[in-house]
Every structure is written in structure tokens, then in C-alpha cells.
Design brief:
The complex is a heterodimer of chains A (270) and B (1116).
Chain A lengths: L2 H23 L5 H7 L1 H5 L19 E10 L14 H6 L21 E4 L12 E6 L2 E3 L2 E3 L5 E6 L5 E7 L7 E5 L3 E6 L4 E6 L7 E6 L5 E3 L5 E7 L2 E9 L3 E9 L4 E3 L2 E4 L2
Parallel strand pairs in A: 1-16, 1-17, 3-6, 5-11
Antiparallel strand pairs in A: 1-13, 2-12, 2-14, 3-4, 6-9, 7-8, 7-10, 10-11, 14-15
Chain B lengths: L15 H27 L2 H28 L7 E6 L5 E6 L2 H15 L3 H44 L10 H69 L4 H6 L16 E9 L4 E6 L16 E2 L23 E2 L5 E2 L5 E2 H4 L2 H4 L18 H11 L35 H13 L23 H4 L3 H9 L1 H4 L20 H16 L14 H9 L32 H4 L2 H9 L1 H4 L18 H12 L4 H5 L9 H11 L5 H10 L2 H16 L40 H4 L4 H10 L29 H4 L8 H7 L8 H12 L16 H15 L7 E2 L2 E2 L8 H5 L9 H4 L2 H9 L28 H12 L10 H14 L5 H6 L2 H17 L21 H13 L28 H4 L2 H9 L32 H12 L4 H12 L3
Parallel strand pairs in B: 5-6, 7-8
Antiparallel strand pairs in B: 1-2, 3-4, 9-10
Helix pairs in contact in B: 2-5, 3-5, 4-5, 10-28, 12-14, 14-23, 15-19, 17-19, 21-22, 21-23, 25-28, 29-33, 32-33, 34-36, 37-40, 39-40
The chains are: A alpha+beta (270), B mainly alpha (1116).
């Protein structure tokens, strides 16, 4: 080859090599760099929707539901509880105590009936706590409700050993058995909806029912058999009355803003 | 024409032009072939999957980079891009500098620009150092002088007899004293100065450092943040297929240099392929396409299908939305934290399949079911491949691979189907006819027939029973030998065979001495004892129609007693209930009955007998069994058998010489040997007889060619069913199926009996195919028949398929330590004796609870046995299992839980068995038996974080398999991190309880009283008025000899962790913060309080004081 061809050959080779080198190195602004540091990144990955916010009660638009739980069939004789197996209770109790699973008031109405709206809406729980007390060898109140997420104070006011053994019906709340050897208070809260049975091992007759609704539209009928539920959102609702021994009854109510709707229930001996 | 001297240009043999054309063609063909081969070699199936995976990896890297970027502060801190909106409405992405970068720039400029500052600081440092050195030198000099003179001075003082050298009295000494003081002061002065100089020097140095560091701190932060983000960017770049380089490196011709698309290989040294002359390690290329199998953090676990993947529809194919999945159960397989790391175990060791292949078809993927097969045929042109004998195990039978390494185990956590299969094989007694390694030397599954004449209510019943056991008792484990489809051509033969067999048996057996049933039993009381609130515990093993429930497994441990009154005599039943082992005793080589002795009083046994004798199966009793009218068939049977070893004439002569009874007996003898009844029953004279069936060891490796698919209209090969799974499925569903269309002599026919638990439709029917020429039409109209026993049948198939030839190295097999082996023997016993009928053990069992409903029933639940080894002292457990009432005899009440209706029965274990059981509980590796609880909790928390589905809530409702798996996996990790279990400490595994001083003893006693333990833990089991036995708690006098002290301590901390539900409250809860004390005004120390109570319980004075305290508290 002539030197001219030599030179041409090597020049071409050099050119190709240079081009290849340039091509290989030209990453430049890489696509991934733009994607990682780009605007999408600024928002960050929130990761799934936020839990939907809890609702709040609106007093301005709410209505009231009230009524009476009537009892048919005459007032039955109350069952007396035999506490002689627990001398510490014998000392404390001045008068006899009676079974609270079926309490008929003097005016032929039913006590301890839990009335609530049947809805799955989740409301914000109030800041103050509900209370259940073990006093004079009984759970007081016998039927109560605490909202999902609301604090429940479990108290013992007796000087001797009680234990608060609560058995929730739903898997979301674990079963626990808490000893209360002296007067004390324990705070717990539950995830609703649920129905929790309270009992005491030391005093087997002691029992209470705790409902855990996700909303505040509930009431328990009192010593006069009446119940009142306030600030109910207007509209048609299903109202359910539950009793420990007599099952449950439902009714449909329509609530109007500022007005009171009356709904009675009648239970009778099965 | 040739010219002279020149080569001949014109005359050739061939036409050159034509030759050139051929040459051209062949070159073209060769070139094309070459190019095609290069292309084909390049365009591999798996490259497409890798390319797709690269896109997912890119996405993942970008996402992770984005979160790293956001975590570092986003565009506020680091360089990035933001969207700038212009006035005219358009927007563009603009690069911005991050704040950190800006800050760094500023500081760097500051440092550089202030070029007067640094030399100044340097000089200051230099001066300070020099100054310090000077002063320091002076100080040292002064010190030396002082020390030297001091020595002389003190010598002088000492010589002069001075008592205090700082207050000299002697004149010579006091003269020198001033000089001494002067030197001392000089030294101290210089020392102070040196210290000051040192401080100054340090200060100057610090100044300089601070000046230098102005920039470096910020630089360090920036570097760290950038490094994190750049890491992901680099990763993304390496898989970004839009980058020129990434495409280039994988291009044809150039891909030899550094391709990113490569086959991935795992060489499994310890598992072999047996190629007849050679055993080679398995080489798996599966991860070439299944790229995410061990990446459980980045890719969700699931069916590791490469192409199928949307959550909604796993059969959705070839969609670009298809996701790669990591291997299901990452806590168990493939990941580095699991026991089966992918790099060591590979894939085909468990999944089987075409070794060393890399295409979908050649690796022998097996579709799970018909639907999947159809999709594969359509989408991928899948067809069964015949060249490799071990296609992949379908997902239905994957558990079958576990056994070849886990040979020593009776129960393999994580292989529920195999466990179920083993259970079924053990209960149904397949090993009675078919020899198989896991059951060598196992007990006979049926009762002994030596005294069967005393048991059966009548000969007629026995005939009907043998003829068809399921007619009497549908859930029976005894299979049906007669009235099978392959006997349809011989009418009357079945009845004759039954009669012959029973006649022979009756002649072999002898009556047994039985107790006489006194006849004074009360059936109503018996029924109460049997089942109310669980009764005496019978329902933990037996079924009966009076106490129905459908929440229990179909195959219970013991027979269904609904018709027992028709089957047995009252005397036999009475004797049996009083003491089962008296009628079926332990004999060397033949263990006795599994039914324990309930220690019933004679009256209770009579009540039971009265009740059970009322349970009759009237329909069965009224059935007619037609014995053959004449001896013809018996003669045929005897003739067929005799002619096997003598001439026909001689055989005829022998038969003619026999009487009727003799013919039946001979026929029965031949039939007994033919059907092999001795495989399940102990029969006098046949104790050493060998099982009659095919040996099943290595059956899982048997080639399909060796199996008899019979002469049936279906083309097994064409349907793709020519494999051992389908053969086995058909065999179990109808054991005589393969005799179809065959012409055989009666004794040549298939004789495997049919188990009603496994019966099912034929394979052809299940697949919707009819038979023969009407196949197409039948397929259109036939409904696929219901197959109720599919689960159980597949479980048995899984077990049988697991019996493969030994192709694993010993190093990869799971070898049990002596402790684990002892535990395994105990585990076998626990399954044999059905402890889980009453007790819950690691999530399994507790069947009796179905019969103890409501709150009332909770009081009668037998205790949960999790961690029993940690709970009780081994010596106590030994004597308890030996005799639960510790010598008190029949009808004695229980010591510990006197309120229970169903008391622990006496099993009559041998000493070896007792030791095995104690070892089983003691060697369990679960959190109860862990020595370091804190470490266990730490490991468990990390495990829950690493693997999904093991959180508190899921585990509460998880099934037994998952709970057991959790314990095993966490135990493994715990051990790896140095944790120990109780059985790894020395015998007696109990920490001794310290002897307490009398003051501590009294403190414990006071606490015991304060907590009012005696209100529930009443000694002697007396139930006070107003309470029921359901409110009682165990008697504490036994604590000292029975309980492990460390366990008592843990129990006090949280009873509901050990027994759910429990009536014992938690006195020192810690779920709402640190543990609270029960004596806040006194001891106020929860740990001390618990220790005091525990030590009090174990003290020698406890028993008397406890009884006294109870008497006081209950006001007697």
C-alpha cells in the first residue's frame, strides 16, 4: 500500500473509533434522572388513599327520636341472686340484689333495652370517656354503649377482688381479663361495630353488655322505660331495639330537622 | 479447441456456467442458513421475558429513586426538575439547583475567596503551637529540677528524723526548705502557663478546622443524599432499554461481550437426576424467565407465572399489565431468609420438570386443571412432551416433593396436603397391603380377629358386614371387597366368597371370656354421660347420630357408633367399655387398642352399655343375605386354586372327598390368602404373613410405561393423561377400573378393595369426555359429575407421589437432632392416640369443643397443650400420663380440675412411649419453650415485618398449618441468632426456686391474701354455694410438684397468652404502658410482686397456709 492509502486507512479508522466513543459516552441527561428528580417526585408517593375522614354530628340539622319500650304481660317476680358463696359480698350488701337480665319497671316498661340506628357510617368519637363501674358486686350500668374509638373507663369501687373479663364478639378486639384487686380504673377502647360481654369470674352473677357502635345515635332505656336519641340526621332510618333475653325488634322511622319522632316498641314474654 | 501450450479453455466435463449457478445457489442457501441460524440462536424465547422484566425493574428503580429523592427533601435540597408555567399558559420542565448544592457552592466560594483568612489561621496555630512547646519545655525543666531537689530534701528530712517535711523543725532542714518551696512554686507557675498555652493551641487548631469544615459538612450531607438517589438512577439506567448502550450490548453479534440478557442458572449440587448410568446434579435455568422469584420485597408473592398476572384474573394471558411475581410463601421458599434458599435448592428439585431446558414447552410445565390447559394450548401451543419422564408436578401435588428430604418427619409444617395424605394413608391402612417406608413396622389398622365370634351379635351380621361394610356404617375405614364392577360377570360369586371367608374365620377363632352385663344400666343417664357438654369425652373420637355436628372432619379417629347395638353383644360392649385393653391387649409386635380406659365405675359402664345397645341400625338388621344354595361355587374356587399345583383329575378327586363344610373352609382359606385380610387384622396363624400388594417405595419415580392403563376406549396418550398422576387418580377412584374389557380368571382379577372415602367419577367423566364413539356428543351434554372426595383423594395421591427414588444428597436432607427425633416419635404417638380430639395443640384439634357450646361449655374445655413442656415438670408429666389419677383407681375424681366432666383417660403407655411423649412436649421449639423471651419477641417482630400475613390479627384467625409454620420459621431464625430452647439446657430444665427469708415469705403470703386467689382457687375442689363447678380454678396444692417455676412467673405476667379463653385475670397488665403494680402503696414493684407470689406458691409451708386461708375466706 502506498503511504497515502496508509494514511487514509488510519484516518478512517480513527474517525470511526472516535464516533463510536462519542456515541457510547453520550448518555447526556439520562431519562431516569429526569424521572426520579422530576415533578412527579415532588408530590411524593402518598401511597393509597387517606382513610376517609370520620363524620361529625350536626346539631343544626338533626332531629330527635324518642319512645318507650313497653312490656306486655305483667311484672314478673325478680330473681334473687344467691351471694352466700362470696362472704365479702355478704358483708357489703345491705339488701338483696336481683338478676338484671330482665328488668320490668313499675310502669310496665322494660329497662336495659339498647336502641340504636342501623347504619355503618363512622363518626368521630367524643373526647370524654364512658364509664362502667363494679360496685356492690354488680356491674353498673348493666347495658351501655361506647363508640368505636371512644375511651371506656372500667372502674372497680369495691374493696375486694373483681375482675373485668370482657369478651368481644368481633375479631377486631382481643378478649382480655383484667384483675382489679383494689379500687382502680382501667381505660380501654374498642374498634366497632362490636358487642362485648363483660363478666366477673369471682362473682359469677355479675355481667354487663357493652355495645360498640360506630355512630352516636343510640340510647338505653332507663328506669322509666323511655329512650331519646338526639341530633339524628334527617331522613329515613332503621331503628333497632335489642334486649338481652327477648331478642330484637326493628322499625322504620323518618326524622325531620328540629322535630321529634316517636317510636315505641313492645316486648312480651316469649 | 485446444491450442498447443495453453490450457484447454473450452472442453470441460460440466457446463461451467451451470456449475456457477449451482454454486451460487448453494452459497446463497448456506448463507441464508447461516444467517438464519445466527438469528435463531439470538432470538430466544426467554429474552422477551427478560426485556419485559427490565421494564418492570426500571419502573421499580424509578419509584424507589423517587421516594429516596422525596425523603432527602426533594427539589428543595437536591438538584431536580420543576415545572415552570409561563404567562402564555404553556409549561416546561426546568432544571433547578437544590438548596444544598447552592449552599455548598456558596461555602466553597467563601473558603476559596477568603484567601487571606486561612494563612492567618495557620500562622496563629503555628505560633500557638510554638509557644506551647516553649513553655512546655521550660515547665519540664523546672519540674525536673524540683523533683531532683525534692528527693534530696526528703532524704535530708528523713535522716534528720522530721515527722512532717512541710513543717521542718530541724535547723538544717529548715534552711533548705525555702529553696524547696521556691522550686516548687516555679514549677507550678510554669505548669499553669503550659496549660494555658495548650488551650490556646487547641483553640487555634479548632478555629482552623472549623474554617475548613465550613464546606465539608454540607458536602457530606449532600454526598449521602445524592448517593442514595444516584444508586437508584444507576440501577434504572442499567435496565433502561431506551439507552443506546443497553440495546447495543444485547445486539446480535455483539452480545458476546457483556450482555444484560443472559440465562440465569442455578446448579443444585445436592439433588440429582438419575440418568441410569450417571447421576448428575440438577441444573436449573428457570430463573431465566422467572426473574422475580426471590424478590418478595419488590414483587408481591403469588403464583410465579411469568405471563399471567392480574389480580382479578390469573388466567389473563400475555397482557402487558402482567406482573412478575415472587414465589408464593416467601417465608418458606426462595428468599435468603427462608429455609429453602433458591441458590442452594434450585427449582426442579421441588417442581420437577425438564432439566437444563429454557423454553416453556420443553421444561414440561404442567397445567393445573383443564381450564388452564385449554388456555395454554391456545396461547402457547402447549402440548405434553414425552421425552422427559418427570414433567412438572402440577400445583395440586407440589407437597409431594417435600418428603424426599423430610423423610424423618411425621408431620411437615408447610405441607398440609401431604400431611393430610399421610394421615389418611395411616388411618385407612394402605400399608397393610402395600409396603412403604414411612410405615415400616406400623401397627395393624384393624382390630384383631382372634376372638371375633364373641364380638359380633350374630353370624348373619358378620356376613352382611364383610359383604359390604359401608352399608352398615358409611364412614367405616374397612373397604369394600365385594360387589365391585369387575365381578359383574360372575353372579353369586360374591356371596359365596363372603360365606366361605366367614366360615373359615369362625373356625380359626375362639370365644373370649367376657364380663357379664348386669342389665341395670339406665340408657338416659348413659346418653348424658356420653355426650352432654362433651360428656366423658367419647365425642372427641367417636361420632354418633344423637349428637350431630357438621363442623368436624369426615374421617374421625374412631368408629361411628350410630348402629353399634346391632353389631356387638351387650356383654362384649360392657367388657370393652370397662377396659378396652382386656379385649385387645398389647402383644409383642402387635400394639393393643388405641382406645383408652376411661376409668368408669361399673354403674357408669352399665349405663353406657344400656344406651349404646339402643343404637341400632334396623334397616341393616332386616337386610337379607342370600347364602349360595349349593356348593358349586366353592368347588370352583377350590378347583381353581388346587389346579395351580396339581393335575385337574387329582384336584377333582380331592374335592369329591371333601364335605360341605370342608369345601367352604378350604375356599375360605384360599380367599383369605388371596385378599390378604391379615394385612389389616391380626389373625391367628397369619402373624408373619407378608403384605399382598405392590410395594410402593419409589412409586413416585415409576415411569408411566410401567403402569397398566388397561384396555379402554379412551386414548390416554392423546388426551395428555398418560402420566402417573392420572393413572393413580383413576385407580383410587375405582380400584378395579383397569380390568375393563379384559378376560381374566377370577383369581387373576384385580383385588384391591374400594375405599369409600376415595371413590369418585372416572377420569374420563371428570374431564367431560364420554367413552368411545359417542365421546364428542357426550362431551356436549354430559354434566361433569360431582366429585366429593377430590380433596382427600388428591391428598393420598400427594403422599404416594412423594415416595420417589432416592436422589438427594444426605447433606441437603433434613436430619433431625436426637432431641427432634424424640419429639417426632412423640408426635406420632399424639396423632395415633388422637390427643387433639380433646386438646388443642398448635392451632389444631379441640374437636370436643363443638359439643361444649356457649359460655357454660367454656368451663369444660380441655386445656390447650401448647408449650406443655415448659409448663409442667417432666417428672410430673411422666407420672400423670402414666396414671392421671395417680393411683386413686376407677371413678376417682380428678386432682387438678375436679369440675371437668371429661377427665383425662388412662392410655396404658409403655415406658418408652411415656418417655417419647415427655420428650415431645419438652423438645418442642415454640415460644413457650424459648429461654430468651426478649430475643424471641425481637425475632418474631422482625419476621412479621419482613413477611406479610403474620400480623397479630391474621394469626388469630389463621389455620393450624400457618400457625405451625410460623412457630417453626421463627424458631429457626431465633436459633440462628443464638437463642436457646428449654431442652438445650440441662435436665431438669427448671430454674430452682430460691428459699425466701421469713420476711419475704410473709410478704408473699400477704400478697396472696390481698389478691384473693382463694376465691377461685379453692383447695379440694369443693364448690361453694352460689357457684357452679364452671367457676372453679385449679387446686394450687399441686403447683409445687407439678408446675415449672419459670412458667408460673410467665403465667402471672399474662394468662391469656397461654390459654384462650381463660378465667384467670391479668393482675399486672402491660398493654397500656409499663407494668402496673397491685400494691402501689407498698412494694410498688411488679417484678418483685410476681416473684414473691411464685416463691410463696413453691414454699413448703404453702399447703397448710393455703387451706387455712381458704377456710377463712369462704367463711367456714
Amino acid at each position: 500500500m502506498t503511504s497515502r492509502n496508509d494514511r487514509a486507512f488510519w484516518a478512517a479508522a480513527a474517525a470511526i473509533g472516535l464516533a463510536a466513543a462519542i456515541a457510547a459516552c453520550s448518555g447526556g441527561e439520562s431519562k431516569s434522572r429526569r424521572e426520579i428528580r422530576g415533578p412527579a417526585a415532588a408530590l411524593g408517593n402518598v401511597g393509597g388513599g387517606q382513610a376517609t375522614a370520620l363524620k361529625r354530628v350536626d346539631p343544626t340539622t338533626g332531629g330527635t327520636i324518642s319512645g318507650t319500650i313497653k312490656w306486655q304481660g305483667g311484672k314478673p317476680a325478680p330473681e334473687r341472686i344467691d351471694v352466700s358463696g362470696n362472704p365479702e359480698c355478704v358483708k357489703v350488701l345491705k339488701e338483696a340484689i336481683y338478676d338484671e337480665s330482665l328488668v320490668v319497671n313499675d310502669n310496665e316498661t322494660l329497662r336495659f333495652t339498647y336502641v340504636s340506628i342501623d347504619t355503618n357510617d363512622a363518626y368521630e368519637p367524643p373526647a370524654d370517656a364512658a364509664l362502667v363501674d363494679q360496685v356492690a358486686c354488680r356491674y353498673t350500668p348493666h347495658v351501655f354503649a361506647v363508640m368505636s374509638g371512644q375511651k371506656l373507663k372500667i372502674k372497680s369501687s369495691d374493696q375486694f377482688l373483681h375482675n373485668a373479663h370482657y369478651i368481644p364478639a368481633s375479631e377486631a378486639n382481643p378478649e382480655k381479663n383484667l384483675a382489679m384487686p383494689a379500687p382502680m380504673t382501667i381505660e380501654k377502647s374498642f374498634v366497632g361495630p362490636d358487642k362485648v360481654k363483660f363478666k366477673c369470674e369471682v362473682h359469677p352473677w355479675m355481667g354487663a353488655w357493652c355495645f360498640v357502635p360506630t355512630h352516636p345515635f343510640f340510647a338505653v332505656s332507663g328506669a322509666d322505660g323511655s329512650f331519646t336519641i338526639t341530633n339524628v340526621p334527617p331522613g329515613t332510618h332503621k331503628l333497632v331495639a335489642r334486649h338481652e333475653k327477648l331478642g330484637e325488634q326493628t322499625a322504620t322511622v323518618t326524622v325531620e330537622t328540629g322535630k321529634t319522632t316517636t317510636q315505641d316498641f313492645t316486648f312480651s314474654k316469649k | 479447441m485446444a491450442e498447443e501450450g495453453k490450457p484447454d479453455a473450452g472442453a470441460t466435463y460440466y457446463d461451467v456456467r451451470r456449475l456457477n449457478q449451482w454454486f451460487f445457489l448453494s452459497v446463497a442457501a448456506l448463507t441464508l442458513t447461516y444467517l438464519w441460524s445466527v438469528w435463531d440462536d439470538h432470538a430466544r424465547e426467554w429474552k422477551g421475558y427478560q426485556r419485559r422484566f427490565a421494564r418492570f425493574e426500571y419502573q421499580r428503580a424509578v419509584e424507589q429513586g423517587q421516594s429516596a429523592f422525596a425523603a432527602a427533601g426533594g427539589t428543595k435540597a437536591l438538584d431536580g426538575f420543576v415545572v415552570r408555567k409561563h404567562d402564555d399558559g404553556s409549561s416546561e420542565e426546568v432544571a433547578v439547583e437544590g438548596a444544598l448544592t447552592k449552599e455548598l457552592e456558596r461555602l466553597r466560594t467563601l473558603v476559596e475567596s477568603d484567601h487571606a483568612k486561612r494563612p492567618e489561621l495557620e500562622k496563629a496555630l503555628h505560633d500557638a503551637s510554638f509557644g506551647f512547646d516553649l513553655v512546655s519545655a521550660d515547665m519540664k525543666q523546672a519540674k525536673a529540677e524540683f523533683e531532683a531537689f525534692r528527693f534530696e530534701y526528703e532524704e535530708l528530712a528523713h535522716a534528720a528524723g522530721e515527722k512532717d517535711s512541710f513543717r521542718p523543725e530541724h535547723p538544717d532542714v529548715s534552711a533548705e526548705y525555702d529553696h524547696f518551696l521556691a522550686l516548687k512554686r516555679e514549677y507550678e507557675r510554669l505548669d499553669d502557663e503550659a496549660k494555658k498555652a495548650e488551650t490556646a493551641r487547641d483553640g487555634a487548631k479548632a478555629e482552623l478546622d472549623r474554617f475548613d469544615a465550613l464546606a465539608s459538612d454540607v458536602a457530606a450531607t449532600l454526598d449521602a443524599a445524592e448517593r442514595d438517589v444516584n444508586r437508584f438512577q444507576k440501577r434504572a439506567d442499567s435496565v433502561d432499554d431506551e439507552r443506546w448502550f443497553n440495546s447495543f450490548r444485547n445486539l446480535i453479534f455483539f452480545s458476546f461481550m457483556a450482555p444484560s440478557e443472559t440465562p440465569r442458572k442455578v446448579v443444585v449440587d445436592e439433588v440429582f437426576d438419575d440418568l441410569n448410568f450417571l447421576k448428575i446434579p440438577k441444573v436449573d435455568f428457570c430463573t431465566t424467565c422467572h426473574l422475580a422469584t426471590d424478590r418478595s420485597k419488590d414483587y408481591p408473592p403469588g403464583n410465579a407465572n411469568v405471563l399471567f398476572g392480574s389480580e382479578k384474573n390469573p388466567m389473563e394471558s400475555k397482557a402487558d399489565s402482567a406482573a412478575f411475581r415472587s414465589h408464593s410463601e416467601p417465608e418458606l421458599f426462595c428468599t435468603s431468609l427462608s429455609p429453602h434458599h433458591q441458590d442452594r435448592f434450585g427449582c426442579s428439585g421441588c417442581h420437577q420438570g425438564g432439566n437444563q431446558r429454557m423454553t416453556f414447552k420443553l421444561t414440561h410445565h404442567t397445567p393445573t386443571d383443564k381450564a388452564e390447559r385449554e388456555v395454554w394450548e391456545e396461547e402457547f401451543g402447549w402440548h405434553p412432551v414425552h421425552e422427559w419422564d418427570y414433567p412438572m408436578l402440577g400445583s395440586r401435588f407440589l407437597d409431594a416433593s417435600c418428603y424426599k428430604c423430610h423423610k424423618e418427619q411425621v408431620h411437615i409444617p408447610g405441607a398440609p396436603k401431604w400431611n393430610r395424605g399421610r394421615d389418611l394413608v395411616e388411618r385407612l391402612g394402605c400399608y397393610g397391603c402395600h409396603k412403604m417406608a414411612p410405615f415400616d413396622g406400623h401397627r395393624k389398622v384393624g382390630p384383631p380377629l382372634a376372638h371375633v365370634v364373641s364380638k359380633f351379635s350374630s353370624l348373619d351380621f358378620m356376613l352382611k358386614w364383610v359383604d359390604s361394610p359401608p352399608t352398615f356404617r358409611p364412614s367405616t375405614r374397612m373397604p369394600s371387597f365385594f360387589h365391585r364392577p369387575n365381578r359383574a360377570t360372575e353372579p353369586g360369586r360374591d356371596q359365596a366368597e363372603v360365606t366361605a371367608l366367614v366360615t373359615y374365620l369362625y373356625n380359626l377363632t375362639a370365644p373370649q371370656e367376657l364380663k357379664k352385663y348386669p342389665g341395670n344400666g339406665d340408657a338416659a343417664r348413659g346418653k348424658q354421660l356420653f355426650g352432654e357438654m362433651g360428656g366423658k369425652g367419647c365425642l372427641a373420637c367417636h361420632d354418633i347420630d344423637d349428637f350431630p355436628t357438621d363442623k368436624l372432619p369426615a374421617l374421625r379417629h374412631a368408629p361411628d357408633l350410630s348402629g353399634i347395638g346391632s353389631k356387638v353383644t351387650a356383654d362384649w360392649l360392657y367388657t370393652w367399655i370397662l377396659d378396652p385393653k382386656s379385649l385387645w391387649p398389647d402383644k409383642p409386635g402387635f400394639p393393643g387398642t388405641n382406645m383408652p380406659n376411661l376409668r368408669l365405675t361399673e354403674q357408669q359402664a352399665a349405663d353406657f352399655t344400656a344406651y349404646l345397645m339402643t343404637k341400632r341400625n334396623v334397616a341393616f338388621e332386616q337386610q337379607l343375605f342370600e347364602k349360595p344354595a349349593d356348593d358349586r361355587i366353592y368347588e370352583e374356587i377350590v378347583f381353581e386354586k388346587l389346579t395351580e399345583r396339581m393335575t385337574e383329575a387329582r384336584a377333582k378327586a380331592e374335592i369329591a372327598a371333601m364335605g360341605g363344610l370342608e369345601k367352604r373352609r378350604r375356599a375360605g382359606e384360599f380367599l383369605l390368602n388371596h385378599y390378604g385380610c391379615f394385612g389389616c387384622h391380626e389373625i391367628p396363624g397369619y402373624e408373619d404373613a407378608k403384605p399382598i400388594g405392590t410395594e410402593l417405595n419409589g412409586w413416585g419415580s415409576k415411569h408411566a410405561d410401567r403402569l397398566d392403563f388397561g384396555i379402554v376406549e379412551m386414548d390416554w396418550k392423546q388426551e395428555g393423561w398418560f402420566n402417573r398422576e392420572k393413572w393413580l387418580q383413576q385407580k383410587l377412584a375405582n380400584t378395579r377400573y383397569y380390568d375393563r374389557n379384559k378376560d381374566k380368571k377370577p383369581f387373576e382379577k384385580l383385588k384391591m378393595p374400594q375405599f369409600s372415602q376415595l371413590v369418585g367419577p372416572d377420569v374420563a367423566e371428570l374431564e367431560g369426555q364420554g367413552q368411545g364413539e359417542h365421546a364428542a356428543a357426550a362431551a356436549e351434554h354430559a354434566a361433569i359429575p360431582a366429585d366429593f372426595n377430590r380433596e382427600d383423594r388428591e391428598a393420598v395421591m400427594t403422599f404416594v407421589l412423594s415416595l420417589v427414588k432416592d436422589n438427594t444428597a444426605s447433606s441437603i436432607q433434613k436430619h433431625l437432632t436426637p432431641a427432634e427425633a424424640a419429639a417426632e416419635r412423640g408426635r406420632l404417638l399424639v396423632r395415633e392416640k388422637n390427643c387433639i380430639g380433646c386438646h388443642i395443640l398448635y392451632g389444631e384439634g379441640g374437636e370436643i369443643r363443638q359439643f361444649q357450646p356457649g359460655e357454660e361449655g367454656r368451663a369444660f374445655y380441655p386445656p390447650i397443650l401448647d408449650g406443655q413442656g415448659a409448663r409442667t415438670q417432666p417428672a410430673w408429666l411422666f407420672s400423670f400420663l402414666d396414671d392421671p389419677v395417680l393411683g386413686a383407681g376407677r371413678g376417682a375424681p380428678a386432682h387438678l380440675r375436679p369440675w371437668m366432666k371429661a377427665n383425662m383417660p388412662t392410655f396404658g403407655f409403655t415406658q418408652q412411649q411415656l418417655n417419647d411423649l415427655v420428650a415431645y412436649f419438652g423438645n418442642e421449639e415454640v415460644w413457650h419453650t424459648s429461654v430468651d423471651r426478649a430475643k424471641w419477641d425481637e425475632v418474631a417482630a422482625k419476621f412479621k415485618g419482613d413477611f406479610a400475613g403474620y400480623d397479630e390479627r391474621s394469626m388469630r384467625t389463621a389455620d393450624a398449618n400457618k400457625q405451625q409454620l410460623y412457630q417453626v420459621l421463627v424458631a429457626r431464625l431465633y436459633k440462628k441468632q443464638g437463642g436457646r430452647f428449654l431442652h438445650e439446657t440441662d435436665f431438669p430444665y427448671l430454674a430452682p426456686v430460691p428459699e425466701r427469708s421469713s420476711r419475704d415469705h410473709d410478704a408473699g403470703k400477704a400478697l396472696f391474701e390481698k389478691l384473693s386467689c382463694v376465691l377461685c382457687h379453692i383447695p379440694g375442689g369443693k364448690v361453694p354455694k352460689g357457684k357452679t363447678s364452671a367457676d372453679m380454678a385449679p387446686d394450687l396444692t399441686l403447683a409445687r410438684t407439678r408446675l415449672a417455676p419459670s412458667w408460673v412467673r410467665h403465667w402471672l405476667e399474662g394468662p391469656d397468652l397461654y390459654q384462650q379463653p381463660t378465667r384467670m385475670p391479668t393482675f399486672w397488665p402491660n398493654d397500656a404502658g409499663p407494668r402496673t403494680s397491685v400494691d402501689p402503696n407498698g412494694l410498688n414493684d411488679p417484678e418483685l410482686e410476681m416473684n414473691l407470689i411464685r416463691d410463696y406458691l413453691f414454699s413448703s409451708q404453702f399447703k397448710d397456709e393455703y387451706v387455712e386461708a381458704a377456710r377463712r375466706a369462704l367463711g367456714e
